[in-house]
Design goal:
The chain is mainly α and about 190 residues long. The chain has a domain of about 90 residues. It is built from four helices and no strands. The chain is rod-shaped. About 0% of the residues are buried.
C-alpha cells in the first residue's frame, strides 16, 4: 500500500472490503480518509459526543450511517448534494433567463438592457401623460378660481346695495329724502 504525502489513507490503494483479512496493517474504516495523527478533531471537556440532527427529519434517513467529514470540500459537496433538489423545487428560474441560451451571455446582457430601456420609456410616457393632464387641470382650476373671485365680488356688491351700504345707495337715499321735502313744500303751497 502507498500512502499519500499528506498522511491520508489512499482508498484506491486499499484492496478488498472491510471484511477482508488479506492485509491487517490497513485500518478497517474505508469509508472516510483520515489523518493518522488527527488530534484537532477530539472534543475537549465533554466525555460524551452529541450530534445535531437536521430540522427536516424526512430529508435524513436515520437508518443510514453517515460518514464523517473532515475536509471543507467534502462538507461543501455534501451540502450541495443535500440542498440542490430542495432549491430546484422551491425556485423556478425567471422566464427571461430560461429562454436565453447559456452560451450567448452577451445577448442576455443586451436583452436585459433592452428590457430596462423599455421599462424606462414606459415610465417616461406615463410621467409625460400625467404631467400633461396635471397642467390641463391646473389651467382649468385657475379659470374656475377667476370665475369664483368675479362672482364673489358681484355678490358683495349686491349685498351692499341691498343693505344700502354703498355710495350709490346712499346717494339714492339722499335724493329720495330731497324729493319727499320738495313734495311736502309743494303741497303746502298748493293748499292756501
Amino acid at each position: 500500500m502507498a500512502a499519500s504525502s499528506v498522511g491520508f489513507t489512499n482508498l484506491a490503494d486499499v484492496a478488498g472490503t472491510p471484511g477482508d483479512t488479506k492485509d491487517t496493517s490497513l485500518p478497517m474504516r474505508l469509508s472516510t480518509p483520515s489523518k493518522s495523527t488527527n488530534d484537532r478533531h477530539k472534543k475537549k471537556g465533554h466525555g460524551t459526543s452529541r450530534r445535531l440532527l437536521p430540522l427536516d427529519l424526512s430529508a435524513f434517513d436515520m437508518t443510514q450511517k453517515s460518514k464523517r467529514i473532515f475536509q471543507k470540500k467534502d462538507l461543501a459537496e455534501a451540502v450541495r448534494r443535500v440542498n440542490m433538489p430542495i432549491m430546484l423545487l422551491q425556485r423556478d428560474p425567471p422566464p427571461s433567463v430560461s429562454e436565453v441560451p447559456e452560451s450567448d451571455a452577451a445577448a442576455a446582457g443586451n436583452k436585459d438592457v433592452a428590457i430596462l430601456e423599455d421599462g424606462v420609456n414606459i415610465n417616461a410616457r406615463k410621467y409625460n401623460e400625467r404631467r400633461r393632464v396635471a397642467v390641463a387641470k391646473e389651467k382649468e382650476l385657475l379659470h374656475l378660481l377667476d370665475e369664483f373671485k368675479t362672482m364673489q365680488l358681484e355678490t358683495e356688491t349686491l349685498d351692499k346695495i341691498h343693505n344700502q351700504e354703498s355710495t350709490g345707495a346712499k346717494e339714492i337715499q339722499r335724493l329720495n329724502a330731497e324729493i319727499d321735502e320738495c313734495m311736502l313744500s309743494m303741497e303746502e303751497k298748493a293748499t292756501p
